[in-house]
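Inverse folding, one chain.
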């Protein structure tokens, strides 16, 4: 059996606004000096270059064959993530290593680009948020062990997926950790609301949208003893970096001619994706930085607006959001934007390419329907990525030979309500969605209950069968 890594990092929180650093032995969310957001940096990272890129590839590939719990999930890449944890701290619930599924030839031909979906809805709580929570809760285990804490109260604001993941991990780990979630009332799908309730979390609803809930959570984290689990928590970002590591490993560490599409939302995931590729590149594990394309709905597009301005005149401004079928993207002031801004500058300085495209709500919902009609299990955020791919092609941002890797952040079953609204043509006007007849799909009644009640069973079978024959136009067996 492979041994647990001996390497230990020297991690600290680095403020992206004022540059102050704080020790990783305590949980910080924002800089006490200026309230800026943190990235966790490993001051021992350069020592990892003592191994060659090919040696690291072999290490990670060997771990992929291991049944050791610590290597089965996101901590296969231990040295690149949270290398202060001990093996006993690590939580594993089956997260990570979600499949990358190439699109059918028909879908690729329709879009005019080779593409694949990474189905992060196949994480245990059915979204990518499990990656960050596995790391955040492993770190909480570390704090409980290191400081002897008897009780930790975790709290998060959510549009659904964050609360589901936080509640599930809290239910699994030590009894000393309890979960509370704040949701915007009426802005979360029934499926997503059911998850934290089923995990036993205390669910509190507030009027407004996600941004309102986030402000309340920030107030609580700043003034009371609670562990904030939103992406302001830099440990969440570390866990989500595993998404990029997995893409690189799946393609045998060759990311030439690859374009990775990521919905922006609160900007935590795209932060993690950028930083993951930077780490691999600095250790020469990959020799090419892939193209990264962020996607935003026109109903919540502050990052798109920022990068649409001339480089020397860019100014960031939050926006007021409108309702969006991509609920996780309905955020007008992404917490992690400062992280994105700093990492994009570094990415581009090292030769990488970064774009942001904007898409319409109609394109998002129809992107989901199009993907799923070709065998995928895409959520609306995955539909947003497919719409973003089509928009990127229109703008000439892609080479024809580039493989587009799209992020389906959650399972489509979490968003079946939006599919139903499309089929029923029941979207409120503010969504700006007019369904197309050819995409509406409803069950077709063969016989009524009244007709069945008037037939004996054999006659029912024959009449139902003949009705289906007429509907489908199938031919009878030859004599």
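Residues assigned per position:
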């Amino acid at each position: 059996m492979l041994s647990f890594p001996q390497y230990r990092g020297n991690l600290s929180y680095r403020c992206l606004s004022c540059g102050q650093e704080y020790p990783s032995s305590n949980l910080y969310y924002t800089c006490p000096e200026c309230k800026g957001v943190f990235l966790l940096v490993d001051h021992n990272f350069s020592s990892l270059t003592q191994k060659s890129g090919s040696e690291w590839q072999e290490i990670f590939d060997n771990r992929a064959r291991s049944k050791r719990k610590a290597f089965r999930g996101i901590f296969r890449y231990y040295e690149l993530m949270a290398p202060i944890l001990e093996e006993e701290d690590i939580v594993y619930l089956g997260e990570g290593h979600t499949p990358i599924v190439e699109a059918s030839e028909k879908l690729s031909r329709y879009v005019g680009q080779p593409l694949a979906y990474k189905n992060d809805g196949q994480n245990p709580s059915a979204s990518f948020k499990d990656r960050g929570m596995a790391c955040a809760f492993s770190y909480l285990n570390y704090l409980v062990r290191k400081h002897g804490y008897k009780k930790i109260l975790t709290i998060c604001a959510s549009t659904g997926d964050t609360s589901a993941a936080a509640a599930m991990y809290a239910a699994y780990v030590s009894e000393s950790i309890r979960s509370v979630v704040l949701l915007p009332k009426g802005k979360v799908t029934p499926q997503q609301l059911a998850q934290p309730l089923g995990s036993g979390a205390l669910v509190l609803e507030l009027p407004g949208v996600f941004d309102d809930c986030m402000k309340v959570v920030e107030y609580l984290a700043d003034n009371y003893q609670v562990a904030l689990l939103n992406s302001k928590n830099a440990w969440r970002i570390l866990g989500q970096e595993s998404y990029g590591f997995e893409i690189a490993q799946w393609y045998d560490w060759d990311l030439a001619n690859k374009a990775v599409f990521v919905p922006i939302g609160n900007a935590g995931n795209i932060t993690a994706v950028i930083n993951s590729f930077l780490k691999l590149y600095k250790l020469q594990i990959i020799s090419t930085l892939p193209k990264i394309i962020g996607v935003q709905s026109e109903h919540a597009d502050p990052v798109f607006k920022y990068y649409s301005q001339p480089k020397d005149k860019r100014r960031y401004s939050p926006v007021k959001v409108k309702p969006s079928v991509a609920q996780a993207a309905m955020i007008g002031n992404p917490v992690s934007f400062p992280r994105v801004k700093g990492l994009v500058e570094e990415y581009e300085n090292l030769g990488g390419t970064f774009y942001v495209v904007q898409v319409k709500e109609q394109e998002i919902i129809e992107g989901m329907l199009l993907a799923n009609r070709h065998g995928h299990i895409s959520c609306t955020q995955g539909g947003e990525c497919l719409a973003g791919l089509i928009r990127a092609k229109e703008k000439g941002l892609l080479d024809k030979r580039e493989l587009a890797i799209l992020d389906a952040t959650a399972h489509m079953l979490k968003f079946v309500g939006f599919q139903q609204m499309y089929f029923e043509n029941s979207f409120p006007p503010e969504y700006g969605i007019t369904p197309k007849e050819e995409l509406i799909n409803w069950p077709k009644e063969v016989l009524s209950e009244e007709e069945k009640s008037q037939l004996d069973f054999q006659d029912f079978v024959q009449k139902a069968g003949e009705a289906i024959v007429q509907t489908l136009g199938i031919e009878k067996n030859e004599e």
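Residues 129-147 form the longest helix (19 residues). The mean pLDDT is 94.
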